[in-house]
Design goal:
The protein is mostly helical. It has eleven helices and no strands. Helix content is 79%, strand content 0%.
């Protein structure tokens, strides 16, 4: 009798023990998964919260002004829809201003890109990656790339202006007189733009040159290749797309520059930003406000096209990374 009861109870105990084991095993399996999902959810929320200031800043100072310019380009003085603001866009002085802006931007971007690329390559082969020279050049380039506007114009005026320190020194040492109107000419403006274009190119292009490994040249030479073949078949395909992308960024930087040119050309509207300034300050013709919005809208289109082209080049570069 006792043995029969024990036999009857034992399977039930085994069933209960099996159930408890499965529950414990399910708890062990579900516990880490639930914890991992919760941690992932918290990271996603934290990432979103951290990016809110960036998107708010972008919306306030980039998207909102762009929308205001686009809407204002199609509005008249009373706020109604009109296309009359575009009537002056194809006049001779407007086309000349766009041509001058593009010319100055292209020349300064080319000079800045070539000199900056050569300087970046010389810095890579002539200094250690974490050496003092590399850190100094990078720090100085970061500062000079942001040194623009009225401060930069004043620095050049005080140096090589009519009564600048450099002008007086050249006159005393050599007897030569610097043209006082040189800074207010297109060559002078291009020279001033190159002052921040070259450091900007060094900042942009230095990581690209730094990514070229010395082992690649050694492998090319071990396979019988020469220097020309190395640059045309190994290093060139990697650096050229990045060089073009950096060149486009320099063009956009020079094309949208305003304060430096405004300080040097106070009475002439030879560039598109200066034409926008003149139209905004015109109190005789109220329609000039809409024309200023049209000019700004045209500049947005030009810069957007340049950025799209730069993005396409970056995608081309991505296959080498």
């Amino acid at each position: 009798m006792h043995e029969t009861m024990t036999a009857a109870i034992t399977p039930k105990a085994g069933v209960i023990g099996g159930c408890n084991a499965r529950e414990a095993r399910g708890t062990r399996e579900n516990g880490p998964s639930a914890t991992s999902d919760f941690a992932t959810h918290r990271r996603e929320i934290g990432t979103f919260v951290v990016t809110i200031p960036f998107f708010a800043y972008t919306a306030c100072f980039l998207l909102a002004p762009t929308v205001i310019v686009i809407v204002g380009a199609f509005q008249n003085v009373d706020g109604g829809f009109t296309l009359n603001n575009f009537s002056k866009l194809f006049e001779a002085n407007t086309i000349a201003a766009f041509a001058t802006s593009i010319l100055v931007s292209v020349i300064s971007a080319l000079i800045g890109a070539v000199v900056g690329a050569v300087a970046s390559y010389a810095l890579v082969i002539g200094s250690k990656p974490n050496g003092l020279l590399r850190r100094m050049i990078s720090a100085i380039s970061s500062v000079l790339a942001q040194f623009g506007g009225v401060m930069l114009a004043f620095a050049f005026i005080a140096t090589i202006g009519i009564n600048g320190v450099g002008t007086m020194l050249i006159r005393q040492l050599t007897g030569l007189t610097v043209n006082p109107n040189w800074l207010s000419s297109l060559p002078g403006l291009i020279t001033v733009y190159c002052y921040f274009q070259i450091p900007l190119m060094i900042i942009i292009f230095l990581p690209a040159v730094d990514s070229i490994r010395p082992q690649w040249r050694e492998a090319c030479e071990s396979l019988g290749g020469n220097t020309f073949q190395y640059w045309t078949r190994v290093a060139g395909p990697i650096l050229v797309p990045r060089f073009i992308s950096a060149l486009l960024l320099l063009f956009a930087s020079a094309f949208s520059a305003y304060a430096t040119a405004a300080a040097l050309f106070s009475q002439r509207s030879i560039l598109v930003p200066l034409m926008i300034q003149g139209a905004m300050r015109n109190e005789m013709d109220p329609n000039q406000q809409g024309f200023a919005q049209v000019l700004a809208f045209a500049m947005i289109i030009v810069v957007a096209l340049v950025m799209m082209l730069s993005h396409a080049v970056e995608k081309r570069t991505g296959q080498w990374q």
